[in-house]
Amino acid sequence: MAKFATRELKAITAAVLTETGDSYSEELSEAFIENFETQGGTVTAQQFYEMGTVDFTAQLTEINAVDPAVDIIFLAGLGSEFPLAVKQAKSKKFGIAATFLGGDGWDRPDLVDIGGTALEGSFFANHFSPDAQLSELGNLFVNLYIEKFEVAPNGPAALGFDSTNIVIEAMRRTTDLTPAAIRDEIEATQNYNGAMMLSRFDENRQAIKSLVINTVKDGKIQFYQSIAP
C-alpha cells in the first residue's frame, strides 16, 4: 500500500490512524510508515484509537492541525470502528480531503453500511477478489463456493481453499506421509496458482503471494488491480 500510495496515487504526505491494542494493526502501520518513507514519502502524523471508539474528534483534529492538506491517511483496524473515522473525517466538521487507504481488515460485508458515501474513492489491500483474473482452479473455487453458499467468497475463504490445496499437493508429492515429510513438501511449494498465486515460502516460512487492491466505488467494494508476488 505504501508503493501504491506513492506510485499510483502520487502521494507525498501521509497520516496514519491505528487501532491500538491490536498487534496486527500496530505492526501493519509500522510497516506502512517504514515503506512509505523508503518510497520518499513523509508521514506527518500518527494517531491511535481504542476498540469501541465512536468519536474520533481528538485524532482527526490533531491530523488536521499538523497538515490539513495531507495526501492520504492509512487507517489500520480490524473492528467496526474505522469506517466511522472515515465518515467523520469527510464530514463538514473536518472536511478532510485525503484519500483513505487500509489493509485486509477492511474486508467487511458491512463496510459501506457503516461508512456510507464517505468511503468513496478509498482503497484497501486484500488477499483475494472473485473479480480478478483467476486461474482455472480459482474460477472453479468461486463457482463451487457460490453454488454452495449463494455468495461470492471473501479473503479468508480463499486463504482456506488455497491452504488446503497446498497441503493436499504436498501430500501427493511424497510417498512418506509423516508430518515432517509433509511439512518439507509444503515448504518446497513454488508457483502455486489457485484462488491466489503463491511464488514460494521465504526462509521464515512466510508466504510470498499475490494480493489485490480493492476500491469503494458507486457504494460498492470493487476490484481495482492485482499485484503478483
Describe this structure as you would to a colleague.
With 229 residues, the chain is an alpha/beta fold. Helix content is 38%, strand content 23%. It has 8 helices and 10 strands. The strands form 2 sheets. Strands 2-1-3-4-5-9-10 form a 7-stranded mixed beta sheet, sandwiched between helices. The radius of gyration is 19 Å and the shape is elongated.
In short:
The chain has 229 residues and is α/β, with parallel strands linked by helices.
SSE map:
Elements: H1 2-8, E1 13-19, H2 23-38, E2 42-49, H3 57-66, E3 72-76, H4 82-89, E4 99-102, H5 111-115, E5 123-126, H6 136-149, H7 155-173, H8 179-187, E6 192-193, E7 197-201, E8 207-209, E9 211-217, E10 220-227
Parallel strand pairs: 1-2, 1-3, 3-4, 4-5
Antiparallel strand pairs: 5-9, 6-7, 7-8, 9-10
Helix pairs in contact: 1-2, 7-8
List keywords for this structure.
alpha/beta, 229 residues, elongated, 10 strands
Helix content: 25-40%
pLDDT < 50 runs, ≥5 residues: none
What is the gyration radius calculated from CA atoms?
19 Å
Instruction: Summarize the helix and strand pattern as letters.
Output: HEHEHEHEHEHHHEEEEE
Side-by-side strand order of the widest sheet: 2-1-3-4-5-9-10
